[in-house]
Amino acid sequence: MWQEFHNIIDLLDRVKTDKEIAGDDGFVANRYPIRFVLFDNFKDSFDFIHHLSCNVKSVEKWMDGDYPDRIITHTELVDKFVAFFRKNEDNDFVIAPFSELARFYDNEKTLQFEALIRTIKSLESTQNGFNKKQRIYIPLVGLEGKMSKFANETQIKIWYFKNIDSSLNYRLILTESTYEVKRLEANHTIVNSIKEWLNIWQQGDAKQRIISLSPSLFANAEYAQPDNAFDFCTCNNVFDFLANGLNLNFGDITYREQDEKYWLRLAKEIDINHFSFESFFNGYFHIDQLADYNVFLKTWFGCNDDFGKWLLCTYYLEKFCNQNSYICQCIKNSHSYNTTDFFASVVLSVFDCEEAELYIEERKVCMDFASKNGVNVNIDVEGRMQNELVKIAEQQGYAKAVKYLTHLTHTEKRLAINWLGQKKINIGDVKDVYPDLYYYLSGTLDSILPWVPDYFEAYRESKIANAISDDVAQIINVQNKNHVSFNIWYNSFKTTKTILNNREDIEVIYWIDGLGVEWIPYISWLLGLKEGVYLNETHIARASYPTTTAINKISLEEMSHNNLKKIGDLDNYAHQNTNKYPEYLIDEFKIVNEAISKIISEYAGKKIAIVSDHGITAMSQYCNGLNLVGYKSDHGGRLAVKESGKPNIDDNYVICEDGKTVCALKHNSLCGKIPTGQSAHGGCLPEEVLVPIFIISSQKETSKYSTKLLTTEITGNNPVIEFEIKGDNVANPYIMYGNTRYNLTKSGNNYRTDTLTLIAATTTVTLHIGSDYKQTFSLKINVGAKEDDLFDF
Description:
Elements: E1 2-5, H1 8-20, H2 23-31, E2 34-39, H3 42-51, E3 55-57, H4 74-87, E4 93-95, H5 99-102, H6 112-121, H7 127-131, E5 136-141, H8 144-147, E6 158-161, E7 170-174, E8 189-191, H9 194-203, E9 209-212, H10 215-219, E10 230-234, H11 238-245, H12 260-269, H13 277-285, H14 293-302, H15 306-320, H16 326-333, H17 339-348, H18 360-372, H19 379-396, H20 398-401, H21 410-421, H22 435-442, H23 451-465, H24 470-479, H25 483-490, H26 496-499, E11 508-513, H27 520-529, E12 534-542, H28 549-559, E13 565-569, H29 570-574, H30 583-603, E14 608-611, E15 631-634, E16 639-642, E17 653-655, E18 661-664, H31 686-689, E19 690-697, E20 706-709, E21 713-715, E22 722-726, E23 734-737, E24 740-747, E25 750-753, E26 764-769, E27 773-778, E28 780-782
Parallel strand pairs: 1-6, 2-5, 2-6, 3-4, 4-5, 7-9, 7-10, 8-9, 11-13, 11-14, 21-28
Antiparallel strand pairs: 12-19, 14-19, 15-16, 16-18, 17-18, 20-22, 22-25, 23-24, 23-26, 24-25, 26-27
Helix pairs in contact: 4-6, 13-15, 14-18, 16-17, 19-21, 21-23, 22-27
């Protein structure tokens, strides 16, 4: 029989009338003493028990003390219940807590809960219990749904105190761990076993949020539904616990199993009383906010571990992935949080995007950051990228394909060179993605002969095209038609030694082996990128022929007083048999770039010259060798030595002073063919003969003087400044100090001022040489030390 109540008074009156019932109804009531009392919340249940004047028995006492988390079976519970019932026939009892164990019995497959209730409801009183009208009250909290099955049965008494106030519900979080989250105890009751779980309901001191770490309750949680006293949350992993169990806000983040170790690390950092994902993120990275992908990339490269990168990605996904964010696509496609894997995703993800062009600019920024931070992409990723780029070029055009190029990978550099060489794209298309290539091709030369700039422009384009152009061939057929035409232009240029003769202002001379004038535009651009470095002069000089290191190094060493510093070697690289187009061009850019960077890092503000012994030709690899009979090949046939007799005059070569050695005038080598991929030197082509000179200093304006302040501190005892001045015709040097002119007197390379009148507030001095040179130096002034007073006792 099912009966509903809507206040505690009516329910308690029902308890009273039930005890006093007489007649046939009394016989039945006394014969079957079990009363199931349903409640929607524990508050009402506790009030009910408090108002009854009978003993309370907890099922917790029937558990095995050695196994506090073993859930006793429903048959064991029946046996314990019956034994207690038979033994305690004199008094009324409340069995509580009871439902807090019974709710976890299976009522779907094995119908354990139903069997439990049916068995208990059928229990009959002992004779003594019958005589004393014994009643056993069993409060059942939140089980209205399960008990409704018995509503129409006459042999059961169910009293239901209905109270739909859901604010009185408890939140039960079932989890295997608290994952070391801090300060949970302040607002959560934590139970570790079934015994502890039952005990909190016996004491009545449970907080509204309960965390159960009991493996038995976790395993049987699915059977507890439906339940109108508890809001259940079963947490299967750390993310479930944080987001669903503790209701921490992580937005729309999707949990991935491979990220578990990072969520575990995050959980240890969480103080439940003071946590927001945004505040934690900003505090961890010491930033105000993650504004955009530029901040993301800077932060990524500031991370020292995968946890930081995971945190960065996870937060970025939550904040930006409702926008058109390329980085979000890359995060989703990445399998880990190491830099190599993430940037593999950056390289490739764009090709799977439906509106790929929306992401081109953001992808380029990502690739730029990767390049600046030395990220390497593995060969498989580069191969897949190349296939996609070639497919776009063939299907949608090269103008579209070039938009996807960046300067991160070797593959992109190869494609840029190939496409530009084949005239599929324009030089402007590579300015941002491969600036080395752009500036190698873009500059011009300042030469005394008008054909020289045109020739080297055509020569550089031929290198990129991997073939000799008609312009290159035509100029050579005119300028190197024979030894006479060659010597005319050859003798128009001075040697490096002649140009730099008596240049005492140059303090250090650096030598890059094999550097030809083709590199002047590229090196001029590189130097322009260096802070505090100025290219004061550029010259074109001629090397002696044969254009070999052995011949030309001698004069360079003499000029530098045997203090020639070699940095960079294009010569040695040119002869390697592993060289292939276009890789050898990429490697040459790297060799020159590294050489210039090393020189600048070493020169420490001095005025220096960068020179070369000879240039190199890349064109001979495209021409058959002449295979001259009776000659011994040298330097790949760019020069050859007559094995007997004297060589005849021939338009293919020029005869050297020794009367035996000949040097090629054309791109055809004199003996065998230069192997494909290799460059060579030794002959008399413009790219072999003409070499650059770069004069570099820390002064923006060109000067023939090198100056250095030797006196860093001036004292009142010796108010004289000394300089080191190098250069030709140091005419009338003087300084201006405090609006006063002081002349300098020479002593070797050093110059001294007259005695200065020191001014404590004036700490700069300006050196003048002639009418066009001046430089300002800073001084430390010490006008005099304070003497001790000998009579001060």
